[in-house]
Design brief:
The chain is α+β, with helices and mostly antiparallel strands. Helices cover 25% and strands 28% of the residues. Helix 1 runs parallel beside helix 5 (150-163) and helix 2 (58-78) crosses helix 3 (96-112). The model has no long low-confidence stretch (mean pLDDT 97). Bound molecules: flavin-adenine dinucleotide. Flavin-adenine dinucleotide is lined by residues 10-16, 34-37, 41-44, 46-50, 173-174, 202-206, 210, 225, 227, 320, 322-324, 347, 349-354. Flavin-adenine dinucleotide binds at residues 10-16, 34-37, 41-44, 46-50, 173-174, 202-206, 210, 225, 227, 320, 322-324, 347, 349-354.
Length: 806
């Protein structure tokens, strides 16, 4: 066994091996994989091997698509036999909302570039003569996906990795991982230790135990999952080509052909549970099944027999029941763990066979080149904080399993695992009808429902439309109040704080106390990593704000960019401050009733901040900025005392028609102002030039990513962010809708909303730069409808920022 390696991957399932192979392909060959048993002896060996293309996320689709393309060629690439079955798939839809979902996914198929067709029930027999299409309204037919033997692809990728120089140590149990003073990791095994630069936790069902050695929380639950295969049937023996894999919400199961029998894998909708009482089994558990629980599956199996009657006509030959890892959002964890650098997660896959190839490729790119060619944010393990406890993870993962084939509408979330992080206004806002969304554990109001019905989730505009219009217009015409305590908040202090921020942000850091700037952290290659609002409280004291979901990500970005010896401290004060946004033409009158601070334009200019008493509460950080484009202040208040400030503003606001507003209205208001958002328009796939954010770049100083930004400017943008007015009347752009010029896809949306003050449906889109001209016409596919869209050159509302400066 080697004593040193560049990378040690812990776990020889499809995820770990897929990564090892792609690390080697990307050029890192001093890489080692350690497996306690034989390769594939965890979940991988007994998977059913389906590899679908149908997926609602563009980036996840790219992962799946790469995998299927790889598996079809893997034998040729590695010389190891692989039994790829490219039989295609059929996803059924039985409700109008499911049909809308298929239409949305069809748009994603256009962007990802795989063949898909939306077909009616009458066409199903051409593709699957043995399916009973009762109740089916439409189906999504994919042509090039299929299924594969999980063992074949894992061993083939291992063979490919070995050929390139990677090493695999089987029958070697990792017993501990330690961080050394050098910053390297020591992987301790029962055969000796290996010191490495990077360590990867790919331990499948054991990933939480392995993570705990280094204090990492790994939110996975091991769910018990079954599938069964019947004896061969003559009808299937006689078929000339293999039937597509069917995914059916009615039986909540996948149904396909396997060795001339029928294979059915149900996802129970009410009785699912974790294996082994929620703890991983002993280390010597290897290639074993868990006792099946067939009685629980009967309702699903009966429905499966209605859908695919041949299933009911043959005896069962094989029953497989094993553990399948689930994260709370059903997406695997792949990327850096929070904290010291170079500890990576690559685990938690519940469709890991379909994902193993692509997941390995894109994480390998991230590790080797500092970034992947797709946006990895949705896989980043740091999307879960310490609030994602074992109880939370078990409850939400179980619900996620129950809903495997349920059609989640946009904004619809799990009903369990809620109320983890609440601002001190939670009860007051709930009493006002707040419809909360869970964001990084927080409960954050989306909109206020006074009817008591709650949100009717839909792929189209729904019952929130009129109340949100009233909220948005109240901000534009009078004054609105919002609880935005979910901001991530940091204090950056110390003698080198200014120089540090100047070095890491593309924008100039304020030279005067009270100055506020929008600053972007770029990767060395010039891509947008983080967006921060930086307020200078003193020369050695800065208050830094960023997106709620970025709390761990941005803390890492700040910490990791510190140089040895730099006298700067970073403290996460997210939970210490609550944030109120008071905005609208009457904001000054309302706020002046609660503070003696001079709020006049001369004394308190736009983009400045100061500390003041508000409603008798000392130490409130008043920042004259907002994301809605009106006169207004953010009030960063000691969290415990925020109710006093809120009550004072509410009562002062009565005379001015103050209205509470939530994130739906905020999204509408921000898009009218053409404000970009981190994670949607601003991602690490694009440069500041491509995002049309160059006004926030100061070329007169040095900053990380400057050389690359200068080079990108010289080379010209590969894509360009455009702002469009869309003729969509029933639905808004969600992001990842294809944009067409005639029949050619020329870009994709990043997200939009209706601007109520301007009565326009607006969206951003990344387009071919040559086509982005004021007034240029396009079409956007919104839930199956081609909608005309026209580029507009400036913000639809108040392009000169007169309202902000008022
Ligand atoms: C019944 C069933 C059907 C499924 N069907 C499908 C399907 O059709 N399509 C699909 O895409 N997915 C399917 N899956 C899911 C799929 O099996 C998993 O998502 C995938 O195998 C996860 O791979 P992994 O590498 O993360 O985990 P694993 O395969 O469990 O690999 C983890 C490895 O880490 C090793 N390990 C753990 N701790 C240590 C340690 N301390 N030292 C050394 N080694 C260690 C383990 O021995 C194990 O080999 C199915 C799962 C089940 C149970």
């Amino acid at each position: 066994m080697k004593s040193h390696a560049r990378v040690v991957v812990v776990g020889g399932g499809v995820m770990g091996v897929g990564l090892l192979y792609h690390l080697a392909l990307e050029g890192w060959t001093d890489v080692v994989l350690v497996e306690k048993g034989e390769l594939t002896s965890g979940s991988t060996w007994h998977a059913a091997g389906q590899c679908p293309h149908f997926n609602g996320s563009l980036n996840m689709t790219r992962v799946h698509l790469y995998s299927t393309q790889l598996y079809a060629r893997l034998e040729e690439l590695t010389g190891h036999a692989v039994s790829w079955h490219g039989c295609g798939g059929l996803r059924l839809a039985s409700t109008d909302e499911e049909v809308l979902w298929l239409k949305h996914v069809y748009g994603i198929s256009r962007l990802a570039g795989y063949e898909a067709h939306l077909i009616g029930p009458a066409e199903i027999p051409q593709h699957h003569p043995y399916l009973d299409a009762f109740g089916v309204k439409a189906a999504f037919l994919t042509v090039t996906d299929g299924h594969v033997s999980p063992s074949d692809i894992t061993h083939a990728m291992a063979a490919g990795a070995r050929k390139l120089g990677a090493e695999v140590y089987r029958r070697t149990l990792v017993t501990d991982i330690k961080r050394l003073a050098s910053g390297e990791w020591q992987v301790v095994t029962d055969q000796g230790s290996i010191v490495c630069e990077h360590v990867v936790n790919s331990a499948g069902s054991y990933a939480d135990v392995v993570g705990a050695w280094t204090g990492h929380n790994v939110p996975i639950a091991n769910m018990l999952h079954h599938y069964m295969i019947t004896e061969p049937l003559q009808e299937l023996i006689d078929l000339e080509r293999e039937l597509p894999v069917v995914r059916d919400p009615y039986s909540h199961a996948y149904l396909r052909e396997e060795t001339n029998g029928v294979l059915v894998g149900p996802y129970e909708t009410a009785t699912a549970h974790v294996c082994w009482d929620g703890r991983p089994p002993a280390w010597d558990f290897e290639s074993e099944l868990i006792a099946p629980e067939l009685d629980r599956l009967v309702p699903s199996l009966e429905r499966a027999a209605e859908r695919f009657p041949l299933f009911g006509q043959a005896g069962l030959k094989t029953v497989i029941s094993g553990a399948i890892t689930h994260t709370p959002d059903g997406v695997y964890l792949s990327g850096p763990a929070a904290g010291p650098p170079n500890y990576w997660m690559h685990t938690g896959a519940s469709i890991g066979i379909a994902q193993g190839g692509g997941a390995g490729k894109y994480l390998a790119q991230w590790m080797v080149h500092g970034q992947a060619e797709i946006n990895m944010r949705e896989f980043d393990p740091r999307r879960f904080g310490p609030w994602a406890s074992r109880e939370y993870t078990t409850a939400v993962a179980t619900e996620d399993y129950h809903h495997m084939y349920y059609c989640y509408k946009p904004a619809e979330q799990h009903a369990v695992g809620r109320g983890l992080r609440k601002s001190t206004l939670y009860d007051r806002l709930a009493g006002e009808g707040a419809q909360f969304a869970q964001v990084f554990g927080w409960e954050r109001p989306r909109w206020y429902d006074t009817s008591g019905t709650g949100e009717r989730y839909s792929w189209l505009r729904s019952n929130w439309w009129e109340p949100v219009r009233a909220e948005a217009l109240a901000v534009r015409e009078r004054v609105g109040l919002m609880d935005l305590s979910t901001f991530s908040k940091y204090e950056v202090t110390g003698p080198d704080a200014h120089a540090f921020l100047e070095r890491i942000c593309a924008n100039r850091i304020p030279a005067r106390d009270g100055g506020i700037i929008l600053g972007h952290l770029l990767t060395p290659a010039g891509f947008i990593e983080s967006e921060l609002t930086v307020t200078r409280l003193a020369a050695d004291h800065y208050y830094v704000l960023s997106a709620a979901v970025a709390q761990l990500h941005d803390r890492d970005q700040l910490e990791w960019r510190k140089r040895p010896g730099e006298r700067v401290a970073i403290a996460d004060v997210t939970d210490e401050f609550g944030t109120l946004v008071l905005a609208g033409p009457r904001a000054r009158e309302v706020l002046s009733a609660a503070t003696r601070a001079d709020l006049g334009n001369a004394a308190f200019r736009w983009l400045t901040g100061r500390v003041a008493d508000v409603a008798g509460v000392p130490g409130v950080r008043l920042l004259r900025v907002n994301y809605v484009g009106e006169l207004g202040w953010e009030l960063h208040t000691p969290m415990r005392r925020m109710p006093e400030v809120y009550d004072a503003l509410r009562s002062a606001g009565v005379a001015h028609g103050l209205k509470l507003f939530g994130t739906y209205a905020m999204n509408s208001l921000r898009i009218e102002k053409a404000y970009r958002g981190w994670g949607s328009e601003l991602t690490n796939e694009v440069t500041m030039i491509e995002a049309d954010m160059e006004r926030f770049v100061n070329y007169d100083k040095d900053f990380i990513g400057k050389d690359a930004t200068v080079a990108a400017r010289r080379a010209g943008p590969r894509v360009l962010l455009a702002y469009l007015d869309v003729e969509a009347r029933k639905a808004d752009c969600l992001g990842n809708e294809p944009v067409y010029r005639a029949e050619r896809v020329v870009g994709l949306t990043t997200g939009g909303a209706h601007g109520f003050a301007v009565d326009k449906t607006l969206t951003f889109a990344y387009l071919d730069p040559a086509l982005v001209k004021d007034g240029a016409d396009f079409e956007i596919l919104v839930r199956g409808e081609r909608c005309r869209a026209r580029v507009i050159a400036q913000p639809a509302y108040d392009p000169k920022n007169e309202r902000l400066r008022a």
